[in-house]
Amino acid sequence: MPRTARPLLVAALPLAALAAALTVLLRGDAAGAAFLAGYTGCWALYAAAVAALRRVPARAVVPLVLAGAAVVAATGLVAAPRTSTDSFRYAWDGRVQAAGVSPYDHAPGDPALAGLRDRWLFPERDACGHDGNLAPLADGGCTRINRPAVHTVYPPTAEGWFLLVHGLSPGDVRHKALQTGGALLSLAVTGLLLLVLRGRGSPWRAALWGWCPVVPVEAVNNAHVDVLAVLLSVAALAVVARRRVTGGVLLGLAIAAKLLPAVLLPCAVPGVRRPRAALAVLLPAAVTVGALYLPYVLLSRGSVLGYLGGYAQEEGYDDASAGGRYVLLRLVLPDSWALPVALLAMTGVVLTVWWRGDPERPWRGGLLTTGTAFLLMTPGYSWYALLLVALVALDGRWEWLGVALAGAVAYLVGGDGATAAYGAAAAVVLAAARARAGGRPRVRGTPGLSGLRTDRGSSRPLRRASARRA
Fold first, then answer.
1. Which of 406, 371, 455, 439 is nearest to 196 (CA)?
2. Angle at Cα 146 formed by Cα 144 and Cα 149, nearest 5°?
3. Is the pLDDT of residue 2 over 70?
4. In angstroms, rounded to a whole number, what is the distance separating the alpha carbons of residues 228 and 225?
């Protein structure tokens, strides 16, 4: 065997095992802790595959990353959504909009929209008592859509995506349309990451996204719209240093797809001191969000915020004692202190990112703000971490991936398992940060940052472009 072929084979074997394991997991019937066990095993194979990729000859890295990403994404198509029913709401919102009705005006269970129901989303009444995944309706029927009595929570970019998928889908395609769309978006993220990272000598890091088990499970199989927000966020961070207005528009689109990318606003203007320069990013972002909401405001009779406030309350973000949020803070603080302390800590992180951030690598601050928000708020939904995984790929700080796995533990088993998982993830992040700080010299004028940076995976130093700094 040629010496150059051996590393390629060594990387391909765990990658093939990962695809096989994901296929078995998604086609099976495991749930809860059993699903988590298989999912954790997939993460172990993912780690082995990425580690082996580092030894693959440079000319083979990009083709292998792309091929692996395609195979891994395809595993998400082998079964109906396994751990989430959110995509059924997406399909309904697309259908409602195609009928000329605002998705913010009626809950799925509203009899006014009974004419839009079909047997896929609203099964026969005889099936209602035999499937625990079906939600009851006030009229005695049932639906696959979760929370059928509340209005949609999704922002306008997401709603536009649902309408587009509905319009392009053939009849009776059911869940496959949104899953296919999720697969295409996830591959687009991989391609965009390769474009950004090849210029920095680290194309292998795109595999941190493309091969990550969270992508086929959450972006493809469960078809979460978060992957659209990830694509727009990566695009925004890739261009914002040199094209502020374009970056701001893309970031506004991302925020209007899923509100989470709003945490990236501080890192989009790192080191910017002049208000005019900051507004060149922030104003287009705000105008874009407003412009996207405007048609729905004009079309809707009620609030376009939908169930957003109720969702925040339901999840315990406004009252730490009511849910599983802020679990790490609640280990050492009274419940009533958790929210204000989290807000204070996030304010400190945001100000640090804005004041000391690297304008040539805005994703570095984005990873810090997003990861810190996750550790402070300890969300209970694993798909939120899709944005975090993409930021890890951009920046290369692998230790934050533990936060993404902790989110899966919180979602699948919750309780003490979630606390332990988030605690372990925080410990790994702190240990890695301490190790990095101990091995990196500080340069006067840039506390905690080196004036001459070398992108990981590349032997070429990259100097900070002070000419772009306002």
1. 455
2. 110
3. no
4. 5
